[in-house]
Amino acid sequence: MSQLCSLFDQRAHIINETLYLVGGSYLDSSDIKPSSLRKISKIDLGSEFRVDGLINQTRIVTEDAPNELTDKDVTNGGRFFYNNENLWAFASVGRGDDIPTQVNQTDRMYRYDTIEDKWSADKISGGEYQWFNNTNGFYAAAPDGRNWYGGGAGIGIWAGRPGLVFFEGNLTPPRWSFIRESDDLNSIPTPSTIGGSSVYLPIGEEGIIVLLGGWDTTRKGSQFAGDELNWDLRPLSDIFVYDIAQNFWTLVPAKGGLPEMRAEFCLVVNSAADGSYHNIVMYGGWSQLRGEAYADVWVLSLPSFRWIRVEDENNPDTRPFKNNLDNPRVGDIGRTRHRCNLYKNTQMIVTGGIVSQYYDKKLNIDACNSSHPPFMVMDTNTFVWKASIIPDEQDYAVPAFISSAVRDRTKPDGDWPNERLGQIFSAAMSSATTTPSPTSSAAPNPTNTVSPDRGSLSTGGIAGIAVGGVVILALLIAGFIILRRRRKQLEPMPPGPYDYFAASQASIRELASNPLRPELPNQYFGQELPSQYLGHELPTGIHNPELSASPVNPSMLGASTQPLLPHR
């Protein structure tokens, strides 16, 4: 029986408990090297789907897909526009035999109807905004079917003013437009970015888009000498916020322990039910500057705009395995060119990606390697990687270590860059104060307790309370007389304020499921070791087996020096 070993650069989206994949490169157990797949792949998530190894092809349903969407040479890095029933393949598409090579864009997109299970070529009104050569741009979508795309190897490196493709999949028929910057001089230009990532947040009149990371393509950089990449990575202290209603971009500085600069990572976002927190979860990525991939988990918490390093547990990419192809050392292993989707509120599904060690060792695309599976899933309530994707829905509760790190901050350090953005978040926070958000503070192994009886008191109970009250009153009178006789004049020293976030004081450590760990300086180039403690169990009644824990015994050998070559 053949198995799916790896995939990367694919489009991926979930509609109605089905994961859809098209485009990109795939490695099957019967293949010698990754190749394109002339199919759309569908995986049913309505029942438990194990992801702790290679995937049997019997769990994947495939159907023919247009060649323009599946040619490996041109379809890596595209995206899905979508609504509740349809998927449109945008960017990184082939021209087709009827389109001349000198034509770079069209007004048509291939649409897959998930109800009828069929493809069609739709003519989209509004202009010709399907770029054939655009790849690796940033993308965001609202639940109502509005989609945005910017940057990439097409739009992102235009000599003129870049902007956003706005696709309205919520309209019948759908339409699109190209949005350039407003004439407001206080707005910064649309960030020209390749390999960055963004999310949509339901804040303000029409929502906002939060963009971070990737390469800055506005000018030639200085980090790399020639080759393919002539730009610098954007620091992850630079967070770009787009106010959709006002067509207004703002740069917000982020604080906390900053992640290393990177591109080609993935994001999902969890929002508290009351809107008090919006926690953007980042996984993986690639640094051309450092010549390595990452397998770390970070949270950017809004509205405080603070980065928090997460001690995730049972990450398959960082645990040692007996069948590791190249080296039992777990350091310097990371995943890039993958996709993330949030499923059932708290399951972050990581689809595909290239897993590499150091610079030139690819652990999952040169041969099958069950140590680094093609799919992974992490619970964003506990930050524990699981063995299965399950159909059970859970409510999101802000983890205690995040609320502790944020410490009631309701705005960025140094205040809001402009009044408009401050008003948007202030309005969201005002509504949040009326309905406090639940906070997850369970210990790793919570003990079940029996709830007290909430019925009425018995007659004996009432009599006991009366007698107890008389005894307590007598003791209070006796204590007062003794204190008067002692005539002590010494007053206790009142406790002073203590700022756990002062630079000279240690950060607080929560006794919670994911303790906040002290951050390393941003310039530190060492590799973190994975956690060695056991994963937390889900609440009773939720079936989701844990990945088996493995003891960590990394080699102490240093990383070998590798030349910084283009990572493609």
UniProtKB/TrEMBL annotation:
Has UniProt tagged this entry with the keyword rRNA processing?
A: no
- Give the primary localization class: membrane
Q: Where is the composition biased (Polar residues)?
A: 550-568
Give the subcellular location: Membrane
Q: Where is this region: Disordered?
A: 430-455, 536-568
Do the record's keywords include Disulfide bond? no
SUPFAM superfamilies from the UniProt entry: Kelch motif (SSF117281)
> Transmembrane stretches, by residue range?
461-483
Q: How does it sit in the membrane?
A: Single-pass membrane protein
- Judging by the UniProt lineage, the source's domain of life is Eukaryota
- InterPro entries assigned: Immunoregulatory_rcpt-like, Kelch-typ_b-propeller
GO-annotated cellular components: cell periphery; membrane
Cite the record's Low complexity compositional bias ranges. Answer: 430-449
Keywords attached to this Swiss-Prot or TrEMBL record, sorted alphabetically, are:
Membrane, Transmembrane, Transmembrane helix
Protein's name according to its UniProt entry: Kelch repeat protein
Write down the species: Arthrobotrys musiformis
